[in-house]
Amino acid sequence: RRGSCGPLMTKKKKQPDQKIPPIFLHDANNHQALTKDLNEILNNKFVTEMKGKSIKINVSSSDDFRTLTKHFEALNLKFHSFCPPENKHLSVIFRNIPTSLANEEIYDELISLNFPVIKVARLFNKDKHPIPICVVDLEDSDLGAEIFGLEFIFQCKIKVEKRNKPKHIPQCTRCQFYGHTQNYCYRDPRCVKCNENHHSSVINKRVKMC
């Protein structure tokens, strides 16, 4: 006699762990003192690795990441890192968006439609004329993902596409080194025009202008 079957058990797919970005501490010359400092302020395990004149630090929690970056920033140390998982957002492209619409108008309309929009930015051509394309950043959530179902805005038919990451290696506009961006860079600024220690966009009477 064939036995009765119990309830069908489905194996839950394990969600991938959020990857905490590494922190690169530059001009670090005392590894023992650094390790002692990390043991005192971090709650979880960490790993360090020499990378040239820098030390790569991998922490195991978002709390430790925030604690360590704030600690280094308070000490005015030179370091860089990358965007932590909880700060990442969904970036999409709006095509066929009328150039007469201001960023603020598009933002307000998306908010009224209950989209968790963060920022709207119009794109321009090489002659600095607006083109019918906008970049829209939203919270990376189920509600944010509903933006792909949007077909009309201000009674105008548009096309929504996911924004692809650039294939080239990014260059930091603060320190001019490659492999990271200025958003999480705390190295000394370097002017791309004259190679002096000031940001390229800074206008200061004490600094010889480039």
Structure description:
By secondary structure, this protein is an alpha+beta fold. The chain folds into three domains: 23-85; 88-162, Alpha-Beta Plaits (2-Layer Sandwich), CATH 3.30.70.330; 166-209, no CATH class. The protein contains four helices and ten strands. The chain has helices at 31-41, 62-74, 103-112, 142-145, and strands at 23-26, 46-51, 54-59, 79-80, 89-95, 117-124, 130-139, 152-153, 156-157, 159-162. The strands form three sheets. It has a four-stranded antiparallel beta sheet with strand order 2-3-1-4, covered by helices on one side. A hairpin with a 2-residue loop joins strand 2 (46-51) and strand 3. The protein starts with 22 loop residues before the first strand and ends in a 48-residue tail after the last strand. Mean pLDDT is 86; it is low at 1-16.
How is this fold's topology laid out?
Blueprint: E1 23-26, H1 31-41, E2 46-51, E3 54-59, H2 62-74, E4 79-80, E5 89-95, H3 103-112, E6 117-124, E7 130-139, H4 142-145, E8 152-153, E9 156-157, E10 159-162
Antiparallel strand pairs: 1-3, 1-4, 2-3, 5-7, 5-10, 6-7, 8-9
Looking at this protein, list some descriptive labels:
3 domains, Pre_C2HC_dom, Pre-C2HC domain-containing protein, 4 helices, Alpha-Beta Plaits, alpha+beta, 210 residues, globular, 4-stranded antiparallel β-sheet, single chain, disordered N terminus
Summarize the structure.
The protein is α+β, with helices and mostly antiparallel strands and 210 residues long. The protein has helices at 31-41, 62-74, 103-112, 142-145; strands spanning 23-26, 46-51, 54-59, 79-80, 89-95, 117-124, 130-139, 152-153, 156-157, 159-162.
